[in-house]
Each structure stands twice: as structure tokens, then as C-alpha cells.
Specification:
Layout: H1 2-12, H2 14-44, E1 47-56, E2 62-73, E3 77-79, H3 85-90, H4 94-114, E4 121-125, H5 128-131, H6 136-147, E5 154-159, H7 160-163, H8 167-179, E6 183-189, H9 196-201, E7 206-209, H10 211-214, H11 221-236, E8 240-244, H12 249-257, E9 262-264, H13 274-283
Parallel strand pairs: 2-4, 4-5, 5-6, 6-7, 7-8, 8-9
Antiparallel strand pairs: 1-2, 1-9, 2-3
Helix pairs in contact: 1-2, 4-6
The structure holds ligand C2E and magnesium ion (MG) (3 copies).
Length: 290
């Protein structure tokens, strides 16, 4: 803040003060610029979804795909979510963007089914502001009715840290979403301090082991222990478990040995534009042979 910057400036001299404030201004200016461009992007629907396959480790079949948003920026090309989702969340634009994602993912999934492709569940990431909205169930019910997608083919991903923000309202929302027939996955699992007591009461279908653990398997004994513990926890709670960010054959082998159900990651497939995803659904994926 300004006081702290001023204090800092007095401590360390005039040049530093100049540097400090212009840096802060640049950051604030960039956020403002992105915000106004995002408003335009929402109006003009400049977003696209890419899809990353989720594969059953034993059959090698694609059983799902995660929808991942990209921004088709008129000057900057394809922009990844890390560059604009945090700003959209901060500036309250995430609900409009997230609603578009839900509708587009449902529409696309139904279109693939209508084209005769094997049915899969599409997973959509929800932000805290969406998940904790009063009308989240009503909105999703509307999307399903409008697109004609059956609820069981839509999976909602909510991070462990989001669901722990307000556990009472999470239990109620998850109950309501489950009774509609939707699937629920807990994203980035292992990074957000879940109470095991609540985990039992949340009506999730799936845990997604965070990439930060998977990436150091099998070399790091601690990450091996954590990954193994999450897989066992899921099994004991009757949840499916998927490992995200699988990049190497060694990771695949470790996960197979630990009886992980599904994997998602560059080893199997990077996120794909819709046409390429449709092609994969038709032809299938070659699964890594150790
Ligand atoms: P996430 O939900 O944990 O999604 C997984 C991210 O890991 C994706 O990055 C994916 O491309 C990347 N990934 C997958 N496999 C690998 C791998 O083997 N190695 C590595 N290094 N990375 C891998 P992406 O597409 O950049 O998305 C980043 C995050 O942005 C997502 O993390 C999610 O939190 C958020 N996000 C993406 N789409 C949406 C959306 O529609 N709504 C909201 N609210 N957030 C979104
Ligand atoms: Mg996700
Ligand atoms: Mg994740
Ligand atoms: Mg590590």
C-alpha cells in the first residue's frame, strides 16, 4: 500500500521510491487493461475450450475430458487461463465467463454424442464465486435443459481449498448437485487441508491428485507416500481417483502399481482443440506401454 511504499522510499532513498510506485502503477494499469478487454471478450465470445482426455489406466479408454478455457485474444493470440482467470475472479467477471464455459462444454458434449461418438463426461472447473452462488443449481439445471445433456455426463471440479472455505454450505450445495445427477470431483487434492471428517460428508465422486505430488513420483519418497495415501484414501471412501499432470512412463507405472483408476497428463495427451478431441474419441488413444 501507499504508506508502506512511502516508508520504504524514505528508508532507501528517492530513486527507490520512483521505482516502487511506477511498478505498482504498472501492475494496477495492467489489471485495468485486462479487465476492460475481458468485458469485451465476454460480449464477443472470444473464448474457446480445449479438452484434455482422462484415461482409464486398465482399459486405456477415454472416459472423460477436462474442459480448459483459452482466450482467443485479437492481438496476443491464444492466452492461457493463468493470465486472466485470477483477474476475472478479482474483478467479478468470473461468473459470466464460467457460465459461458458450462454452457459451451455441455453443448459440445451433447453435440459429440449426437454425432455418434462414445459418450464421456466433460469436467468443468468452477471458481469459488460460482460454487457459492445461491443459484448455481438452478443455472446448471437450465444449461442441461437447454443443451439436452444428461446430468451424468457433466462433472464439476472444485478445488479442495474452495470447498473448505465454507463447509456447511459446501455440504448443502454438493447434496443438491448430486441429487440432480451431476458428477463432482475435488481438484488439486492434497494442497488444501481437508478435514477427513468433512471429506466423508462431501458427496464427491472423484479425487484429483495434485500435479505437485505426481511430478516428483517415483523419485521423491515423500511424494510417493502422499500419492499412495491419497489413492488409498479414495478407495476407502469409495471415490474414484485420478492423477493429474502425468508426464512420464515411470509415473504411469507407479500409479498403475498403486491401483490409481485414471490419469490425465501430457504423457497421454495435451489439451486439444474440439475437432482434435472429436478425432480422439473416434479413434482412441495409444496407451503408454512400459
Ligand atoms: P487445473 O484445473 O488443475 O487444470 C490442469 C492444468 O494442468 C491445465 O492447465 C492443464 O493443461 C495442465 N496440465 C495437464 N497435464 C499436464 C502435464 O502433464 N504437465 C503439466 N505441466 N501441466 C499439465 P491450464 O489449461 O493452463 O489451466 C490452468 C488452471 O486454470 C486450471 O488448473 C484451472 O484451475 C484453471 N482453469 C482452466 N479453465 C478454467 C475454467 O473454465 N474456469 C475456471 N474457473 N478455471 C479454469
Ligand atoms: Mg481442473
Ligand atoms: Mg488441478
Ligand atoms: Mg514435491
Amino acid at each position: 500500500n501507499a504508506d508502506a511504499a512511502m516508508y520504504h522510499a524514505k528508508e532507501s532513498g528517492r530513486n527507490n521510491f520512483q521505482f516502487y510506485t511506477s511498478d505498482m502503477n504498472a501492475r494496477a494499469y495492467e489489471i485495468l487493461a485486462v479487465e476492460s478487454q475481458l468485458r469485451r471478450a465476454i460480449e464477443r465470445e472470444e473464448f474457446v475450450l480445449h479438452y484434455q482426455p482422462q484415461v482409464d489406466m486398465r482399459t486405456g479408454r477415454i472416459v472423460g475430458a477436462e474442459a480448459l478455457i483459452r482466450w482467443q485474444h485479437p492481438e496476443n493470440g491464444l492466452v492461457g487461463p493463468g493470465k486472466f482467470i485470477p483477474i476475472a475472479e478479482e474483478r467479478g467477471l468470473i461468473v459470466a465467463i464460467g457460465n459461458w464455459v458450462l454452457r459451451e462444454a455441455a453443448r459440445q458434449n451433447r453435440a459429440w454424442q449426437d454425432a455418434g461418438l462414445p459418450p464421456i463426461a466433460i469436467a468443468v472447473n468452477l471458481s469459488a464465486l460460482q460454487f457459492y452462488r445461491q443459484d448455481i443449481c438452478g443455472y446448471i439445471a437450465g444449461v442441461l435443459a437447454d443443451t439436452g445433456l444428461e446430468a451424468r455426463y457433466l462433472e464439476l471440479e472444485v478445488t479442495e481449498s474452495i470447498i473448505m472455505q465454507d463447509v456447511v454450505s459446501t455440504v448443502a450445495t454438493m447434496d443438491a448437485l448430486k441429487s440432480m445427477g451431476l458428477k463432482l470431483a475435488i481438484d488439486d487434492f492434497g494442497t488444501g487441508y481437508s478435514s477427513l471428517n468433512y471429506l466423508k460428508r462431501f458427496k464427491a465422486d472423484k479425487l484429483k491428485v495434485d500435479r505437485s505430488f505426481v511430478s516428483d513420483v517415483p523419485g521423491d519418497p515423500d511424494d510417493c507416500a502422499i500419492t499412495r495415501a491419497i489413492i488409498n484414501l479414495a478407495r476407502n471412501l469409495n471415490l474414484k481417483v485420478i492423477a493429474e499432470g502425468v508426464e512420464t512412463v515411470e509415473q504411469w507405472q507407479f500409479l498403475l502399481h498403486e491401483h490409481c483408476d485414471e490419469v490425465q497428463g501430457y504423457l497421454v495427451c495435451k489439451p486439444q482443440p474440439p475437432a482434435d478431441m472429436a478425432q480422439l474419441l473416434k479413434a482412441g488413444l495409444p496407451i503408454p506401454k512400459p
